[in-house]
Specification:
The chain has helices at 11-19, 21-24, 35-45, 89-100, 115-123, 150-155, and strands at residues 2-5, 51-55, 61-70, 73-80, 105-111, 127-133, 141-148. It is α+β, with helices and mostly antiparallel strands. The structure holds coenzyme A. Coenzyme A binds at residues 22-23, 26, 77-80, 85-91, 108, 110, 114-117, 119-120, 123.
Length: 156
Amino acid sequence: MKIRKAEPRDIKNTYLLFADQTIRLKSKKSAIIKFEDHETWFNERILYDNFFILEEEHGDFIGQIRIDKKNNENIISIGLVEHYRNKGYGFKSIKECLQLINEVEIVAYIKSSNVASIRLFRKLNFVKTSVSERGGDGLERHVLFRKISQKCKESR
Ligand SMILES: CC(C)(COP(=O)(O)OP(=O)(O)OC[C@H]1O[C@@H](n2cnc3c(N)ncnc32)[C@H](O)[C@@H]1OP(=O)(O)O)[C@@H](O)C(=O)NCCC(=O)NCCS
């Protein structure tokens, strides 16, 4: 598996990934995404550093990881093509990404029903810090995990 920065050529694979219903149901915003909206979002996102693509050595697209800065938080998100799930790629790729970035705290918001994701982030030593309701609709709960990156721990 290789990890590299996202590039313009990744627009289609990332769209197909985000449009996948199994991903939409696990995301904060579950509504269907139009390609034009993805295009605008994608072209803006790749200007930032922390947008990573995971792929096989032969170039097959595995998924994406992003660490977005929002409201003073570094929010990590991950999505893998269905065929590549539950094979250790999530664990391995996030571990590698955390070595590539310098942020002290990384936060993951996960639906409490997303067992695979919760197990993954626990295994990565993220700790549950709070549970909140989503946007006032009271239907979906998200769990917050935090991690102090190894680099920063070592420099203390
Ligand atoms: C969540 C996701 C990133 C996990 O990555 P992954 O590569 O499938 O996970 P891994 O194979 O590295 O496994 C990590 C842990 O999760 C567990 N796990 C993986 N898939 C699971 C599933 N479907 N049900 C229960 N546990 C699961 C693994 O057993 C492992 O735990 P263990 O070592 O204690 O057994 C991936 O399944 C995915 O892309 N899902 C859809 C999108 C999504 O939910 N993104 C996260 C939003 S916060």
